[in-house]
Amino acid sequence: MSWTDEDIDRLFSDATDHSSVEFKEEFWNDIEKELPIQRKNNGLYFLGGLVAVLLMMVPAQIKNVHVESFNAQEESNHKGTIITEIEKGENAKTNRSQIASSEFDEVTENHGVKLAITNQRKVESNLIENGTMNASNTFEISNSSISFDQGIAANTERNSNLEKLDLKEFSHDQAEFEHRNYSLEPLKKGHFFVELNAGIAESPMMYTEGGNNFMKTTSIQAGYSFGMGKFGVSVGAGMTNYFMDNVLIKERTKVYGYSSNMVERQYDFNRVMALSIPAKLDYSFGRHHAGINAQFNVPLSCKIEKSQLVDGVVESSSEGYVGAFLFSPIWMQAGISYSYNLSPNWEIGTSFNVQLNEQVQSLRMKGERNSFPVSGTVSLKHILNW
Amino acid sequence: MLIVGFSSCKKETIEDPIPEQTPVFTANGSLNGNSFEIIAGEENATMQTMTRLENGVKLYTGILGNNNESIEFGIHEGNIDLASISNLNHFSGSLQFARIPSEPLLMLSKELLPNAMMINQIKWYVNGVFAGIDDVEIIYPGKYNICAEVVFFDGMQSTLCNEMIAGYHLNASYKLTHYLNQTGNLKVWLDEATEPISSVEWLVDDVLYCPGEMLNIGEIGLKSYKITSRVTFTNGVVRTRSILVDGSLSGKFIEDFSIFENEIINEVFWDYTVSIKFKKDGITYSTAEADNSNATIIVNDMNYFGLNSSGNQVFKCNASVNCFVTDPSNGSQIPLNFNTQLGVEIKD
Question: Residue B7 in 3-state DSSP?
Fold first, then answer.
């Protein structure tokens, strides 16, 4: 026998209007004792509700949306942690609408916050009152699921004749990702990532005779991140390009012969390619991550433009690559960073770094060495869910 | 692909800086008590080297300086009748200054010729330039091409040219003597040779005739013939002398000009002598006309330096000079003292 909507409505109506057992607050108090987490009601509930409204507006293609507002409502009502999960899929928005419009037929007020109690909740109350609700992890309503925290959900399949739906256990893994408002899909402790960076940095040499004392930087990095509670650690490796504008060797020599020749040699270091080893420790709050980072760069190769002038006349000019032996073998930098999750897989960020050692080793470079050049970068990070 | 990509990149090297050099060619000293310093490479001063030809003789020259101040240092060629380049040892040690002779070195005179009575007039040409009629004096040392355009008593005109050396050592010399008998048999031979002869070539009217110590032609015609001998001595000297033979036996011949060389009594030799000109503020002071008989120039060493822009060898000459130069404004002699390291071009 299959249930029709009318049957369900009648069932709800009978259970609420003609209940033989009166709803008692003690039942909920008993349940509350079973809850593992006691959260205080505070202004965050309002914020949660606001977030919920905003999330209702999120396009349906954003999958696995965790509607935190339902948490707040359920929590306020039951004084415990209740997580409402909208089933992923194209019907998520519809389901939320149904819950909001039809299923919430009664509004109560608790601690000044208007809360919606669903018919299902009433059913649940009746079931509990009848002594038929046992501690369970499953509770299901139509295509939506309202999951109670551990121990409070009842196994209603015997009495409610509703379709079965497994309630997900509220685990620490889920908690780790809940604060990021991600899905409740089983999440991994760590993940690989690919990151693109672009930025600007002070030149390692300060040259006063014109030119730009800043340089552009780009890098591509790959690495692995893993979490430890709200802390995350990332390590990786990549290649960084430093597009220098004003790092050059400009040597002038007087060569005497039948008359003097003023020989000028200039090596313009246009680009330095370095192997990068970044590491980052960050703290997450919501979608935001603030952290400290360090990066070691090993310059490998330089692209140079070489020219020679004799008595002011260009005698030869060429471009090519040379080793980075005129630069320090390791560049160390450290700084602070901030990043924000655009989505579960995409993250943007920025960082501000200070070079800790001199990047130039040779005394032949023109200009004054910049002891602690600073740099800033913006980044786009893609998290690989392998 | 990465390896291929990197390997295909052009590899450049960052060369070590060119070491700053010290000046190569310098001169510092004083002219009449006024000090000067000239450095090639400073204040637009340059070291120019060249080999000049003065009166047919090479002058190995270096000019150090700029437009305002310069020293021209020249060493005259020596042993100019030798075919090969002079030994560099001749350029070292204590050298003499070249001095312009006070008396003529050569006297070209019609009257010195044995058949002067048959000659009406001689026009002398020195190095292709008309120099005079009948009598010409040559003052400056050199190697000259002397041509005599002879007009005989009957109006016949003949021309003969010979190379003559004045003011330089002759390492070998000779004269041509000829005999033409009534039958037209001509014999020409070398006389008064100062060095052993290695070989002789004969040319008749500029056409190679035969080798041998004596030219013997059985019968010649009645016209004039130009007989040329090209003699190689065992010491390396190569000289050429020509005579004009009158086939009509009427005395309209022309002897070689050796008689004029033999008349040189002025003991002036410019072999490996030095000439210096100092130019300052548009005035040129020269050693040539000053009395430098007691002056000294010590060439400490003479080493090869390199090729100049003409591709010729340049030698670096380190010398100390104490001499006099003539002030052209008043003809007085003023002292010039300097130490120098300058270059001179020396080529064959």
Answer: helix
Residue B38, CB-side half-sphere exposure with 13 Å CA sphere: 29
Question: Given this model, what pLDDT does residue B312 score?
Answer: 93
Nearest-CB residue to B21 (from A255, A259, A304): A255
Cβ <8 Å between B17 and A326: no
The residues with which A147 forms a beta bridge, in sequence order, are A83
pLDDT in tens, A128-182: 444 434 433 333 333 333 333 333 333 433 444 444 444 444 444 444 444 444 4
Residue A304 contacts residue A272 (beta carbons within 8 Å):
no
- E strand or H helix that includes residue A125: helix A119-129
Give how far A359 is from chain B: nearest CA, Å.
Answer: 18
Q: Tell me what pLDDT residue B145 has.
A: 94
Q: What is the mean pLDDT of residues A77-98?
A: 40
Q: Which residues of B touch A319 (CB under 8 A)?
A: 10, 12
DSSP string over B99-153: ---SS-SEEEEGGGSTTGGGEEEEEEEETTEEEEESEEEE-S-EEEEEEEEEEET
Q: Would you call A255 an interface residue with chain B, using a CB distance cutoff of 8 Å?
A: yes
> Per-residue pLDDT tens for A281-318?
999 998 999 999 999 999 999 999 999 999 889 999 99
Is the CB of residue B66 less than 8 Å from the CB of residue B46? yes
Taking CA–CA distances from B41, the nearest residue in chain A reads A260
Structure tokens at B34: 């006024």
User: How many other CB atoms are found less than 10 A from the CB of residue B41?
Assistant: 23
Cα–Cα distance list, A99 to A60, A121, A274, A380, B253 (Å): 16, 12, 56, 37, 145
Q: Which two tokens stand for residue A363?
A: 């005394």
> Do residues B59 and B51 make contact, with C-beta atoms less than 8 angstroms apart?
yes
CB A258 within 8 A of CB B25: yes
Residue B90 CB-half CA count within 13 A: 16
| Identity of the residue in A249, A260, A304 whose CB atom sits nearest the CB atom of B12 | A304
- Which of A249, A255, A259 should we substitute to test contact with B (largest number of B Cβ atoms within 10 Å)? A259
- The residue-averaged pLDDT of A29-38 equals 54
Cβ–Cβ contacts within 10 Å for residue A317, how many?
11
DSSP alpha helices (H): ranges in B187-287?
Answer: 258-262
Give the ipTM of the model, two decimals please: 0.73
Would you kindly state where each structural domain of chain A is located, as residue ranges? 5-178, 190-384
- The mean pLDDT of A84-108, rounded to a whole number, is 40
Does the beta carbon of A292 lie under 8 angstroms from any beta carbon of chain B?
no
Which is higher by pLDDT, A377 or A10? A377
Could you confirm whether domain A190-384 is CATH 2.40.160.20? yes
Mean pLDDT of A234-247: 93
Q: pLDDT, tens digit, for every residue of B278-303?
A: 999 999 999 998 999 889 899 999 99
Which of A257, A306, A322 lies at the smallest CB-CB distance from B24? A257
What the block records as the tokens of A270 is 């246009």
CB contact under 8 A, B47 and A257: yes
Contact predicate B14/A320, CB 8 Å: no
Please state the domain extents for chain B.
22-98+270-345, 106-262
Nearest CA in chain A to B63: A258
Q: Cβ–Cβ of A321/B13 closer than 8 Å?
A: no
Distance from CA of A143 to the nearest CA of B (A): 53
Q: What is the CATH number of domain B106-262?
A: 2.60.40.10
The answer to whether B25 contacts A304, with C-beta atoms less than 8 Å apart, is no
